[in-house]
């Protein structure tokens, strides 16, 4: 592995950082989070058209940049630094790769150019579980996260006029604004149950969408109700979606880990700046040895988490991704908590930016954890506890 980034990869980071510094400062981030869509739609289209962010991992033949998981992780790191509310996770890391992997040629030609161009946003609807459960990172991939065979979650029924969905999903990323819903639904009944992915146009189908009040306003979520909604299977009718979702785990976890690293790095920068400015006993608090040691420990933790995220993106292995995400979430939580404490009373006020990052990392650990579950999954995938495994070292 060559740990150094290429010039093109450095350019992706520089371009995004400069653009977000000018167009997504904290006041605009707060305003965008309160917008009806939950993000700045004009900025998202600009990022898609000028930078190619929306189509970063979409193949060139469908209007994308044709980049890989490393470039996607770098983009997530920069948006995490800015705490940018955007459809990047739901659209670019989930919806577009699933359409590319499962969709028919007609579906790919119809959907991928619009997703890559920023004209269409999408999301994955996981009815009864969490995203890590759907990706096979917190337990067996038995499909229970899509609902029971008879009730619960979202059920799919085939009719003479096509497929219909009914049920609900209580917590969907960008569910209130996405123009394309990729809904994981149970089909086949109790005899031959399977999990299929369906493409749903919420504007043309009977879908009720309710935006939720969340702890982290920069990560909007919604409750979706399907009432005999028209749906089109993504790919062949009988293609079970569980294996493709598991295959997606490595890239998604690496991207989320990089995003958490970016947020942790920015909190650390804000805390160091404050420690240099805030004076106590006639000197900056950053000059005290105890504060120096705490900040140094945080810096080392952020560097280690970044290395893990980059390796996970480079390797594409689900075990490396799960381990990197666990480390990044834990690091971000630690850095944000220390940042709030070292800022003193101002760190918990609504006016200060540190509390926004604290809410983001606290919410992410609930959405994409738990940390111990991710580590257990990484150990299982790597075969660490396999009695038949007599290797001296396990490569994640």
UniProtKB/TrEMBL annotation:
Listed InterPro entries: Acyl-CoA_Oxase/DH_mid-dom_sf, AcylCo_DH-like_C, AcylCo_DH/oxidase_C, AcylCoA_DH/ox_N, AcylCoA_DH/ox_N_sf, AcylCoA_DH/oxidase_NM_dom_sf
Boundaries of every Acyl-CoA dehydrogenase/oxidase N-terminal domain copy: 6-119
Alphabetized UniProt keyword annotations: FAD, Flavoprotein, Oxidoreductase
Limits of the Acyl-CoA dehydrogenase/oxidase C-terminal domain: 255-370
Cofactor(s) essential for the protein: FAD
This protein's record includes keyword Ligase: no
Membership in a protein family: Belongs to the acyl-CoA dehydrogenase family.
Protein name per UniProt: Acyl-CoA dehydrogenase family protein
Originating organism: Streptomyces luteosporeus
